[in-house]
């Protein structure tokens, strides 16, 4: 729990790696300006929205800051209000604790943070998103984890050059197979 003089806290889910890492600083700035809770959002291909919490948003004076008017956990593509999705960085107001106590289990018969945030929105609690235009690695599934591992490996000053050569050999070996597809 928070001390009496603490109004908000950060949640950073480990299956999302965000670059550059200054996103939280921008979220704090938005919180200081607008109050309430601030979340990080990224745009995804509409075909993939059912994997995420999706924001229903309104524009603000800043292109990269949106007011959240609703949130849906893992909607069907046709039910998604946008293609802006939650990306594992939350700056949450202390009101979230009360909201979590008041919601019923949602998707997957679990208490969903998305549902608690949506409850706060419906009660007039200000919620905004910062739309991240940097890199996001989704480590929560193999299709995201493997490319992220490759990219981080290639960036490594000691192992990157050898890894690059290894990948060239591997790609050359499998190129004929994938060119036929």
Briefly say what this structure is:
Keywords: Nucleotidyltransferase, Transferase. The protein has 5 helices and 8 strands; from the N terminus they run E-E-H-E-E-E-E-H-H-E-E-H-H.
Structure description:
This protein has 181 residues and is of the alpha+beta class. The chain has 2 domains: 8-138, Spore Coat Polysaccharide Biosynthesis Protein SpsA, Chain A (Alpha-Beta Complex), CATH 3.90.550.10; 142-180, no CATH class. 35% of the residues lie in helices and 28% in strands. The protein has 5 helices and 8 strands. It has helices at 23-34, 95-102, 113-122, 142-155, 160-179, and strands at residues 8-12, 16-19, 37-43, 53-59, 65-73, 84-93, 127-131, 135-138. A 6-stranded mixed sheet has the order 1-6-3-7-5-4, with helices on one face. Strands 2-8 form a two-stranded antiparallel ribbon. A hairpin with a 5-residue loop joins strand 4 (53-59) and strand 5. Helix 4 (142-155) packs across helix 5. The longest helix is centred in the last third of the chain and has 20 residues, at 160-179. The termini are far apart. 28% of the residues are buried. It comes from Corynebacterium minutissimum. It catalyses: alpha-D-glucose 1-phosphate + UTP + H(+) = UDP-alpha-D-glucose + diphosphate.
Could you give the topology of this structure?
Layout: E1 8-12, E2 16-19, H1 23-34, E3 37-43, E4 53-59, E5 65-73, E6 84-93, H2 95-102, H3 113-122, E7 127-131, E8 135-138, H4 142-155, H5 160-179
Parallel strand pairs: 3-7
Antiparallel strand pairs: 1-6, 2-8, 3-6, 4-5, 5-7
Helix pairs in contact: 2-3, 4-5
